[in-house]
Design a protein that fits this description.
Elements: E1 7-12, H1 19-32, H2 47-57, E2 64-68, E3 83-87, H3 102-107, E4 118-122, E5 126-128, E6 138-139, E7 142-145, H4 159-172, H5 177-182, H6 195-201, E8 217-220, H7 221-230, H8 232-239, H9 253-262, E9 266-267, E10 273-277, H10 281-290, E11 296-300, H11 306-323
Parallel strand pairs: 1-2, 1-4, 2-3, 7-9, 10-11
Antiparallel strand pairs: 4-8, 5-11, 6-7
C-alpha cells in the first residue's frame, strides 16, 4: 500500500569544472592551509541521468530539492513545478559559508522550511534503476532502515565520522535488547545473512557499530532538529569546517542511527540497491541491463589517473545514454547529450 504523505528528494551537486567555483574553493584552501582531494568533487556528468531516472522510476515524488552553490546545469528546466533550486545561503547560516564540506550541507537540511518531513537524501552518484514506490522508503510514516548492528573497523579516514556518530549514540542510548526480542525490526528476513550480526552482538549493551549501505537514505526532517538540539556545540563545530576534517566529522547517518535506537523505523531490504565503483563498467552495464530487483545504483568515484578518468567517463556516458536515451521533463528540449565513444 502506497504512503499518503508528501515525500521529497534531496540531491546535492557540484560542478568541479566551474572556474568561478574553483577559484573560490582554491583561495579558501590556501587561506586555511587545506590540501584539496579533487576526487571528492569530481563530476562524471551523472546528474542528468539522475533526473532521467527519477522521472522514469519515481513518478510519485513530491519535490526534488537540488542543492548547489549557484551552479545550475544549462540543460536543466528550472520551471519544472517539481523542481526546487536551492543555493547554500538559502538555508545554511552565513557564518559557515562558503562551505565545501558535504556534511555541513547535509546536516543543515532541517533549516529548509519548504522541505517535507519525509525526504530521501541522494548523492549525485546515485541513480534509480527500476520502478519504485513510496513504501520502498517509508512505512506508516517511518523510514525504512537497516536495524543491523556491526563492529566498526578503523580502516580509513572516513571511519572517523562513523566513530564520532557512535560516541553520540552511546551517550544517549544503550542497546534495547527487550525491543530487539519483542519486535521484528531487528530480526527481519529482509536482512538476509546480515541478521546473524544481531545475534552475535546481542549480549553487549554498548553499541559497537551499524551496517551501512552507500545508497539513498530516507529521513525524517524532525530527527535532524532533535539531534541538533541535543548536541548544538558539536554541530556548530562541524559547521565551522569549510572543508572536511576527518577527526571532527559526523555525518547524516547519525540520524538513521538515532531513529533505529528510538525504534522509529521499519526494516529495509538488502536488495534495495547495488554499489559499484566508477571503474567497474561491466558490472554497471550489467545492473542497468539485466537487474530486476535493485531499485538504486550507486556509482562511486575511485582513484583514477587523468587518462583513465577520460576513458572511464567516456564509456560510462555511453552506457548511461543507452539505458536512459530519452529526455525527461526536467530537461530543456534544445539541449542534447554529446556522447564521446571510447577508443578502447
Amino acid at each position: 500500500m502506497s504512503e499518503k504523505y508528501p515525500i521529497d528528494i534531496v540531491v546535492t551537486w557540484v560542478d568541479d569544472g566551474d572556474s568561478r567555483w574553483l577559484k573560490k574553493r582554491n583561495n579558501l584552501a590556501t587561506q586555511t592551509g587545506t590540501t584539496i582531494d579533487n576526487v571528492r568533487y569530481r563530476d562524471y556528468g551523472l546528474i542528468k541521468y539522475f533526473f532521467r531516472s527519477v522521472d522514469q522510476y519515481c513518478p510519485w515524488v513530491n519535490k526534488i530539492f537540488f542543492i548547489t552553490d549557484h551552479q545550475v546545469p544549462s540543460w536543466l528546466d528550472t520551471s519544472n513545478p517539481k523542481l526546487r533550486i536551492i543555493f547554500h545561503e538559502q538555508f545554511i547560516p552565513e557564518k559557515y559559508l562558503p562551505t565545501f564540506n558535504s556534511n555541513v550541507i547535509e546536516l543543515n537540511l532541517f533549516r529548509l522550511k519548504d522541505l517535507s518531513e519525509h525526504f530521501i537524501l541522494f548523492n549525485d552518484d546515485m541513480l534509480m534503476v527500476n520502478r519504485t514506490h513510496e513504501d520502498d522508503f517509508f512505512k506508516n510514516g517511518l523510514p525504512r532502515l537497516y536495524g543491523i548492528y556491526d563492529i566498526l573497523l578503523a580502516k580509513e579516514e572516513f571511519h572517523h565520522s562513523l566513530l564520532n556518530n557512535l560516541i553520540i549514540i552511546n551517550k544517549y542510548f544503550k542497546k534495547n535488547r527487550h525491543n530487539m526480542m519483542t519486535t521484528s525490526k531487528f530480526f527481519s528476513p529482509m536482512y538476509g545473512r546480515e541478521v546473524v550480526k544481531n545475534l552475535l552482538l546481542f549480549p553487549w549493551t554498548d553499541i559497537s557499530g551499524y551496517f551501512n549501505a552507500h545508497l539513498a537514505v530516507p529521513h525524517l526532517k524532525s530527527t535532524f532538529s532533535v539531534v541538533y538540539e541535543k548536541e548544538p556545540r558539536l554541530f556548530e563545530s562541524v559547521f565551522s569546517d569549510h572543508f572536511r576534517i576527518p577527526t571532527n566529522e559526523i555525518n547524516q547517518w547519525i540520524m538513521s542511527y538515532w531513529n533505529i535506537e528510538m525504534g522509529e523505523f521499519y526494516p529495509q531490504s538488502l536488495k534495495l540497491g547495488e554499489y559499484c565503483t566508477v571503474d567497474q563498467l561491466d558490472e554497471i552495464a550489467k545492473v542497468l541491463r539485466t537487474s530486476t530487483r535493485e531499485k538504486i545504483l550507486c556509482i562511486n568515484d575511485t582513484e583514477l589517473t587523468n587518462e583513465n578518468f577520460e576513458r572511464v567517463h567516456s564509456r560510462l556516458t555511453k552506457i548511461l545514454n543507452e539505458h536512459f536515451p530519452n529526455k525527461c521533463s526536467f530537461e530543456l528540449p534544445q539541449f542534447t547529450i554529446q556522447v564521446q565513444h571510447p577508443d578502447v
